[in-house]
Amino acid sequence: MLRRRTFRVAVLATAGVALAGGVTAFASAAPAHHTPAGPKPTIVLANGAWSDAASWEGVIDRLQREGYPVVAPPTGLRGVAADSTYLASYLNTIKGPVVLVGQSYGGMVITNAATGNKNVKALVYISAFAPDKDETVEGLTKKFPGSQISNDPNAQVPTALFPVGYPKADGSIGVDLYAKADQYRNLFFSNRVSSKKAAELAATQSPINAAALSEVSPGEPAWKTIDSWYLVSKDDHVIPPATERFMAERAHAHTVEADTPHAAQVTHPGTVANLIEKAAESAH
């Protein structure tokens, strides 16, 4: 979730393997390091809410220096089905293998957009939602305690957010949700960026349609048929780390845990890029 150079993997690695950025790796069978045959896969990055594609800036820089083609089409933040359909259409324009990466709400999008696309060889979740069919952002956020997005579970709007109404084509009123500026730095960065930078990002954030938070993931998840990688951010104040572990384990993802905040791609772009490269090594 976050904007310009801003912002939710267990490489089930053999115990003792060290990954960059103070990451703890565990479980089993990490993919072997090798030089893939043929051209490198295209890395497609999907941002989450309260951010935009520019949040991947540090990650993009590192991946491009390693020779990867990288694209970051903006996530519309209008709804799970609509955003996933758009990304699926975008993926159809790419020739060759693809590694699809989602952060936070972007995980909801990639989980549905990749289904049925044979070019998508790996999914990478960065502090992200990895839903099963019929699950929602709201439900997964509340599955385990630890999210600071709301300190009032009965509130109609999470207390860290504020609503802005807008007229819809059918005459009804829609609602966009913005993150409050005074909570932005703690929520998304666990106070690991300067107050000045957090204020800039809060001022330029992209809101999400409130209905998207309760919209169910519509189809069978792509992680059931596509190899997945997951970064569990141990200092995440938006998605509880316990929820991230649950989703990663359920997806049989290659998982690593790191001492990162929700917007790990902003604060720890090297850690994120390294994980994406490991997924890319398998996509040949």
Task: Label this structure with key terms.
284 residues, disordered N terminus, 8-stranded mixed sheet, Rossmann fold, alpha/beta, single chain
Tell me the fraction of residues in β-strands, as a range: 15-25%
Report the count of strand segments: 11
Mean pLDDT across all residues, rounded? 88
Low-confidence parts lasting 5 or more residues at pLDDT below 50?
Answer: 1-36
Structural class: alpha/beta
Biggest beta sheet summary = 8 strands, mixed
CATH class (first level) name: Alpha Beta
Distance between the termini: 30 Å
| Rg, Å, rounded | 17 Å
Order of secondary-structure elements: EEEHEHEHEHEEHHEEHEHH
Share of residues in helices: 25-40%
- Tally of individual domains: 1
Which fold name corresponds to the CATH topology? Rossmann fold
CATH architecture: 3-Layer(aba) Sandwich
Give a written overview of the molecule.
- The protein contains 9 helices and 11 strands.
- With about 280 residues, the chain is of the alpha/beta class.
- It has a single domain, classed as Alpha/Beta hydrolase fold, catalytic domain (Rossmann fold), CATH 3.40.50.
- The strands form 2 sheets. It has an 8-stranded mixed beta sheet with strand order 1-2-11-10-6-5-3-4, with helices on both faces.
- The radius of gyration is 17 Å and the shape is globular.
- The two termini are about 30 Å apart.
